[in-house]
Amino acid sequence: DKYAVIMAGGAGTRLWPLSREHKPKQFISVEGMSSMLEQTLARITELIPPDKCFVITNKNYAELTREVLKTIIPVQNIILEPLRKNTGACISYAALWLERRFQTGSVCFIPADSFVNNKYEYLNAIHQAYRESINSSALTIIGVNPTYPATGYGYIKIDPSKPSVSNHISRVLQFKEKPDMATARTYVESGAYLWNSGMVAGNLQTFRTGIQQHMPEHFNILSAVLDQSDSPSYDSSIEEAYSQLPDISFDNGVLEQSSSLTAIKGYFDWDDIGSLDSLATMIGQDSSGNAVSGSHIGMDTHDSVIYSSDILVTSIGVSNMIIIKTEDVLLVCPKERAQDVKAFVQLLKRIG
Ligand code: GDD
Ligand code: MG
User: Fold this and answer.
1) Which of 97, 157, 188, 281 is the right S-S partner for 173, CB 3.0 to 4.6 Å?
2) 24 alpha carbon, closest ligand
């Protein structure tokens, strides 16, 4: 059988102030569109029946998640984590949980924060990933052509000389998570790398052995607690278990360490709406290059991202700026500083 797990427990700090601690980006909707989480689920349920689709998120978002998803998937398919310990914990917990429940099958993990333009090609790549993973002891990751030297993504070096089954499927020569700018430039120029879309598929046994081999602490701690999942004190024991887990992404913890990975090249337009400048992709740009959501009137205003949840925003002689007005915050930031929002939020937290 085939299962899909959507990962929706991240904080999405770089999208502040649109994305907030109590309502991170996967739950927000822009311009009357449904949230990224709903869009992700709507896409995947065209391939996988709703009762085999799961969502894993933080317990703080339980209500928010149930509210939007209960009409699409059974509420029992929402897996809750007691603490935020990154995708290393999220994928390990969900994969081991699924194996205990269903014993065998293939699973594809899908981030809830992707923007996808060509649904058909997207589903086609996922379909191939499932097919590839049935009898394989390698995890399969889905990559897309990189368009610029992004430092916020993982890079997949594919082996063009040895296309295994078709030229869409290749052995992975190297996986590098979030390289620095200089390295990202050489990767993109070389033409040998794909961006990691964040989707990873495999059969449940392959996930288990990968976790056991590369993140033994996760494996031991989570296996032990899952063995007691029938006990009444499960909630407190899973919290205790999570508090001991190292905070590491699955990309750093498993994918970078693994010597046998398969990559599928996807032919869809894709963007991780990871920072405020990329909102332009989601909102769409007008003839002046502005991406506007909410009311705005500008004179000589170009190539900017402007969002307002309520008031009219006006601007004169503004270019390459991000202006975000939410209920309680106004942020003004040059587009080129969009990546600094994360550090800025840390600073705000320290100031209190
Ligand atoms: N349940 C749960 N728990 N979900 C989480 C957690 C967690 O602790 N942490 C993150 N997530 C979810 C996020 O909500 C997001 O949907 C997905 O997992 C990926 O996490 P991000 O934090 O957004 O990762 P990233 O964007 O920095 O990097 C990953 O995605 C890139 C593509 O978007 C990596 O896989 C990169 O290699 C990849 O290029
Ligand atoms: Mg992301």
Assistant:
1) 157
2) 1
